[in-house]
Each structure stands twice: as C-alpha cells, then as structure tokens.
C-alpha cells in the first residue's frame, strides 16, 4: 500500500510530504514581474506539469509553459513577486526548467517576507531564504530551505533573464490553533491537513481532495481504478491540528458514473505518533474508532453529515474509506481545535 513517503523515492522527502504553498489551485498568486514578455508569471504557478507544444507560437514568439522574460541588454536581472497560498514555513523548493533548453534562467535567488496585503511596498524588508543557486536546462532543481520562520510572499530573482517552467514551494501552512475561533476545516491543506497514504490513486490529483472550493472537473480530485477484487479503497490523512470533528462534507462533484457507492470515516488520537506513515499505522488504522458510519453516496453532489457523527473527542488522524472504489472531489472535516 503506497505512502506519500514511498512514492517517487528519487525525489527529496520535503517534496513528497510538504504542501505546495505556490500552488495556484490553493490560491497562490502572481503579484508582479519586472518582465514577462514571452510567457506570463502566473503560468509558473500552475499545478499541472509543464508541457511543450511543437509549432505553437503567439504574437511574442514561441509559446512556453512557464514564466519567460525577454533577453536583457542592460546588465541587470529579472525579478518577480508571488503571494503564497497561505502563510507557512518553507522546507524546500523545486525550481523546474522543463522544456526550457536554450532559454532557461542560469541562476536564481529567493527572498521572503511577511505582509498582510497583496503587494509589499517598495520599502519592505526581505530575507534571503535561498542563496544564489545555478540552474540547468530542462530539469528539476530541488533545494532545501533552512528558514524556520513563517512567510507570505516570495521575491524570485533570475540571473540575468530567461525562463522557469514551474516553481513549487513545499512547506507547512501556518495554523494558529490556539486562536482559531469556531469551526474550521481541520483537514484542509491550507490548515496543514496532509495525505499520508492510500490504497490506490490511479486517476486525477489526489492532493486536490483537501483543496479549497469545489472541483472544476473529474480530474480535480481523488479517483481509484475499478476494483476487480474483494475489498475497498481507503486513504489515511493527518489533520492540520488536533481537534474534535463536528461536521463532515463529502463532495462527489463531477463524478457521475464513477462515484463510490458509499463511504465511512474512522479516526484516532495519535498525539505521540510523530510524522509520517508506517506499515504499523496502516494496520492500526483498520481498528480505529468509527467517526462516520457507512453512508450511501450519490452522483455529483455534496453530502453533509453532522448528527450522524460519533462523538469521539479530539483526534489527529482519519481513515477515509470508499466502497468499493470510485472518485471523490473534496473532503471537509469541520471542527474545533483542542490542546
């Protein structure tokens, strides 16, 4: 049974376990760029993998899937500012130059700041969290971040010009659990909810299960293959904060001929478990207490449960079961934080 830690073992652990705070789908925004002549900054934040389309040109030249500046002739370098999807501690970067061969940015540096608005003022103080690093053509460049502070904005410098296909900023969203008021979505990615493992995730983008908003299409969520053997599919999720779950929403948006027949949720309080997924945790999860008894699901609809939930007190992890297989667009677990 795959865990996030075991997927793509050649990729650094921070890129397998962190949440991409520069995800456009989670709410990251392109704020400003010194130049975006060939390709706009916002493309650098797209969640999809970059593509190359042979023979596709626009009014400015070859169409490229990323951010690309024009060739500088003044001795300077290009800069861009992005607002992260949410405040958080950054643990690493993936600076992806896929498909940029003769036009990639040869080097980069990243600074950070914390600012409540959209665009920090000119006098804003910035802190270097990734010193100058060399980049190569059409490749992923993984860099660990040693900063332990929480940031909201990044300023990306490329030297002297060129293109970056994707910038992924892996981190841990900041959730001020002590000051959280009322019910919050304890499993939301922007509140620190993380998928630790699953039985199958053949289709779609399973990380979008914990994303804000409703799914935009059938690929925007978790979908398993058609099960041809006995059993059912499941997913293990760590809550962003220990809390008491009081409401559950299971959304099958866009899943019409392939939604699960039914679903249930189990939960446990594993304060001393630590971070990550092990075979022992998978086995243990089969015996966690029932939070939501098995419920029938329908096509392309939000299913809300409150009175059906068992009062278990504070929990830290859930096991989301779907019977026997199928697709779920979003899962919401609303509740109040606990010490």
Automatic annotation (TrEMBL):
Pathways per UniProt: Nitrogen metabolism; (S)-allantoin degradation; (S)-ureidoglycolate from allantoate (aminidohydrolase route): step 1/1
Any GO BP annotation: purine nucleobase metabolic process
Location of the Allantoicase domain: 27-172, 192-337
Enzyme class: hydrolase
EC number: 3.5.3.4
Swiss-Prot/TrEMBL keywords: Hydrolase, Purine metabolism
GO molecular function: allantoicase activity
Catalytic activity as recorded in UniProt: allantoate + H2O = (S)-ureidoglycolate + urea
InterPro entries in the record: Allantoicase, Allantoicase_dom, Galactose-bd-like_sf
Superkingdom: Bacteria
Membership in a protein family: Belongs to the allantoicase family.
Protein name per Swiss-Prot or TrEMBL: Probable allantoicase
Organism of derivation: Roseicyclus elongatus DSM 19469
Taxonomy of the source species: Bacteria, Pseudomonadati, Pseudomonadota, Alphaproteobacteria, Rhodobacterales
Gene that specifies this protein: alc
